[in-house]
Description:
By secondary structure, the chain is mainly alpha-helical. It is built from twelve helices and no strands. The protein has helices at 15-19, 21-25, 37-66, 70-94, 99-103, 118-127, 142-152, 157-167, 187-198, 204-235, 247-253, 260-264. It starts with 14 loop residues before the first helix and ends in a 5-residue tail after the last helix.
Amino acid sequence: MTDTPETDFAGKMAYGDYLRLDLILGAQAPRSSAHDELLFIIQHQTSELWMKLAVHELESARDAIADDRLPHAFKMLARVSRILEQLNNAWDVLRTLTPSEYTEFREDLGQSSGFQSHQYRAIEFLCGNRNAAMLKPHAHRPEIVTELQAILSRPSLYDEAVRLLARSGFDVGDERADLSEQRVENPKLQAAWRAIYLSPEEHWALYELAEKLVDLEDYFRRWRFNHVTTVERVIGLKRGTGGSQGVAYLRRMLEVELFPELWHVRTEL
C-alpha cells in the first residue's frame, strides 16, 4: 500500500468528471467585450446553484416537519440559513462593480433580470409568501410554471409548522381552504407562539423550531437588504433591466414577512 496519490485517471472517474466541470466552466458566455461581465455572470450563476440547494433543503425540511422528524428539520433549516449567508457574502463581490463598469455591458442583458429567477420564487413559495400573480414572469416556460404550481398546491414550510402546533394541542384556528393563497395573519397562531415562548422548557422542540424559522427569515431579510443596497450602489434609481421599478420595487419587498406571527409575538413577551 502506498500514500502516493493516483495520477492516472484514464477510464476512471476523475474530479472534473464527477462535478461535470466542462459543463459548468463552459456555461459562461459574455455578450460583450467588457471585462466585468464575467463577474456579473458568475455571481448570478453561483447564486442560482446555492438557491437550488436551498430549495432542496426547504422541501426536505417541510416534509420532515410533516412527519414529526424535527431533529432532521432543524438540521436542514440551519443549513438553509448558512446557504443564505453565502448568498449574502456574494453581494460583497458584486459591489466591486462600479456604475461605469456595469454600463459597459448593461444593454447586452436585454430584458433579463433577477426578478425572473424561478428558484427565488420557489424559495418564497416554499416558505409561505404566496402570490400566484408572480407566476406571470415565467409564463413563457410552461415547465417552470408547472413546477411552481406544484409547490403552491402543497403546504408551505410555515403551514407545516402551524399544523405541527395543532397536532401538539394548540388552537391555531382553521386552515385556509386554498393553500395556494397568501396566509392572513392569525391572532390565534400568535397566541400559540406566545405560550411556547413563555414556557420554552415545556415546549422545547417547538421553541427550537420557532427560533430556526426566525434565523432563516433573519438571513433572508439580510439577503433582500443587501440586494437593494447593491442595486442602488450600481444603478441608482434607474428602472431594472426587466422593466421593474428597480430599487423602489426591492424596497417594498423588504416589508414582506415570511413568518409574521413569530416576529410580532416578540412585542408581547
